[in-house]
């Protein structure tokens, strides 16, 4: 991993208005680069959030307007973008993939990740979600090389499945990028705990960019986007109230030092 890297998590309050969400994403990406960010992570379904049926109905192809905007911004601003996610058309299906593109500073797509674990839960009247009604699961674990670190991409509910991250760590990942729309109901007890745990157990940096606030009636996200170091220390945390950008400086030396002094990844005995 490169010695020094400034990264950003973009927290958004996306709504059902795609044009407005794209304009807001652009504003926040520009704000992050003005703060010196070299890698920026957006939240899950940043271009339309609050109703999965509408998101699926307005799904875009891989080279649709959302991808084109991300690519143009990455190129113009010369940054790496982990473009949160958007609903992607799946051929012959009325359900969509929940897809994250990672784009390099020339505007090229380096990786395409489709959310593997779908959030199907019934916590009573307070929270019932069945993502499988409108979304299709992806099947591929995604890791990629950049000039500064090896990245692992995952999305939101994936956070609850440690085997995914262990596999990414086994493939040499150093920085976990996690776009999310973690709910208010589950987030207050589980969000920070899970993000920090994934950092500690895999000795990785984590950038977890969340949605925040009410998106549509009954759809409320927890916010508090986090950037965590491989010791599990929170480097920066966003509010639970509003759209904003948080920045942190990552250190390749710290990651190497932690892995050398406490070689838990090497001390594994079970497969
Ligand atoms: O919305 C999701 O995908 C995941 C979520 O809030 C949770 O796991 O509590």
From TrEMBL:
PROSITE patterns: CN_HYDROLASE, UPF0012
Stretches assigned to the CN hydrolase domain: 5-252
Domain of life where this protein originates: Bacteria
EC top class named in words: hydrolase
Pfam families the UniProt entry points to: CN_hydrolase (PF00795)
Upper classification of the organism: Bacteria, Pseudomonadati, Planctomycetota, Planctomycetia, Pirellulales
Similarity section: Belongs to the carbon-nitrogen hydrolase superfamily. NIT1/NIT2 family.
Enzyme nomenclature, EC number: 3.5.1.111
GO MF: 2-oxoglutaramate amidase activity
CDD domains named among the record's database cross-references: nit (cd07572)
Keywords for the protein's UniProt record, in alphabetical order: Hydrolase
Protein name: 2-oxoglutaramate amidase
